[in-house]
Amino acid sequence: MEEKKKEDEIRREPIVDGFRVNGKMTGDMKKIRGLLSTLRFLSIVQEGDYLVAINVESRDIQKNPYSFSILYLHPDYAELMYTSAPGTSPKKRRIDMLRYFLDIATLAAPAYEFESGQVYQLIEAALKEITEYAQSSYDEIFAKYDSIKTEYELLHKKLRQTKLSNENLARENIELKSRNDDFTLKVRGLETYSDDVLTLKVQEWLSEHNSEINVTEFSRVHKVPEIRVEQMLNKLVVDGVLEVRG
Predict the structure, then answer these.
(1) pTM score, whole prediction
(2) CB within 8 A of 70, min separation 6: which ones?
(3) Is 80 exceeded by the pLDDT of residue 225?
(4) 56, 128 in Cβ contact below 8 A?
């Protein structure tokens, strides 16, 4: 259920798009704000040497902006960023945003001049898309839609499979690490001498080295901590097994 919830949230995430047009601020920002103030739905703020016009069209269940647009009016260019809700046509949304941008450009014209050539290019691209829709039959449009929908479903299925594979790999890595830790502990246990075995090793060493023992050397050879060797030697002396030379 939790995974399904996350997938639904990803699906509902709006798509962000936008476009930029060169321009020139011919009036001061106060004048531009006054011209755009007739659009009551706009929130206009000044950021340094440019203006930001925010239009929130809808909000999600947490009251966060969902469908919205942000227009940046810089001294030498304007940029419009906007969101498209999942399940809607990105092309239609772009046409709607272009129409909205032209309304803004008309209102701001006395104080802001836009590069007409770039505006015409945007309009031409929008008209081309409209013409493409108008000339296409229902079957052609549905075929395109069905093809995109099928491709999306395949990609979504691959994404789910990838997520499951990653989760399985993560579990396997945890299991392998746990086994490796157990193995390491077992190996260490095998490498550590019991008291009886260590006693025999000490006695063998003394026998082979003229009843003398270099604790550091013995510890290095047998991979036993020096403090344990010293403790064992003290025990053997106390028990009367070994005698300390004067």
Answers:
(1) 0.50
(2) 52, 53, 54, 55, 80, 81, 82
(3) yes
(4) no
